[in-house]
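Data's thin. Show one?
=====
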Amino acid sequence: MSSTPSSPAAPLTIAEEIDALADPDFMTSLARGLAVLRAFADTRKPQTIAQISQQTGIPRAAVRRCLHTLRQLGYVDAELNNFSLRPKVLTLGYSYLSSTPLTAAAQPCLNAVSKALGESSSLAVLEEDQVLYVARAATSRVMSVSLAAGSRLPAYCSSLGRVLLAHLPQDELDAYFARTTLTPMTERTETDPDKLRAILAQVRRDGYAVNNEELELGLRSIAVPVRGASGRVLAALNVGAHAARVTPERMVEEFLPVLRQGAQELAMLLP
């Protein structure tokens, strides 16, 4: 009698991940409050208690207490049962942006890259399986969504993300693929894990990644790693342009040398 293959376990909710941490010094209430704040990250619309509870798995009563506390502290506003973030929440990220050597040194470099190429440039890090933009110099809007420091994009289908993934230790990369749903963003998006691994191996060998309309149709980009003094990749630097204006070949021939020079200048300023 053949055995029925077991179905893959459902991914843990945010609440289950929090509850699974057994560290006696871990503050569950703080973790829940931060999870509630982050529930606003993927939407521009106000959120209800029920919506946040469904998204995070945190019980409604706990979500209500978190929102009440955040409102009292000035981070959240409410109209009837619809909650939205207030500008004060920006102060949480500003502390990082103003004090980290990477972001403090980045803006003049990005401005110089953008001026030299006439295209928008960005600096990003890998944060919880996504590309997190930490600095940007925009000459024009090349995506349908507006990008700025704090914006997030999928790593597997962006030039920035592929550079960062390509330099992960093998066990971390395996874990990334095990927990990431590879959703096609356009008809060109590569979602086969084996093919993506081959692409990342090539990126590691070449020292750069080119994205050809896999993240958004009409957008091409090229990215290079930014290394610290130890040689470890700390971030990725890229330039994006309209596909109708810039070919992949031109990106490699003209954009890549400028990007590499910018990455070297940034590396000299990092610990």
Notes: The mean pLDDT is 86.
